[in-house]
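<derive_structure_tokens>
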Amino acid sequence: MPPWAIVIVSLATVLVAMVTLWQKAIKPMALTIAEANNAVPVMRALVDAFSGDPNVLAVLQQIAAQFRTDSGSSLRDVVNSLAEAAEANRVSNEQLSKLLKELTDKVDDQQPDPPP
């Protein structure tokens, strides 16, 4: 193989290695660090709020449990039922508005024209 071909293949190999290293290691690590920077203030606030409380983990577990559905008694279930009720109210409102318009049109059609 000529020397220039060896150089091109070597450069291509280095380039592929650098791209792979970027995609598989450096970029995910940078994203993790960015997310950690967002989480640190929340974690500090939790530490400040619960410092000295021996039941911290129990409280956090109770809070986390409220965000899972469990047959209607969690906050997540309440939010879901409120969303369903809001959608049902929207549909009912549309139906009632349509019916009111039809009745209003019918009443307007049945009224005699005023004399000239």
Notes: The two ends are 107 Å apart (CA to CA). The chain is about 80% helix and 0% strand.
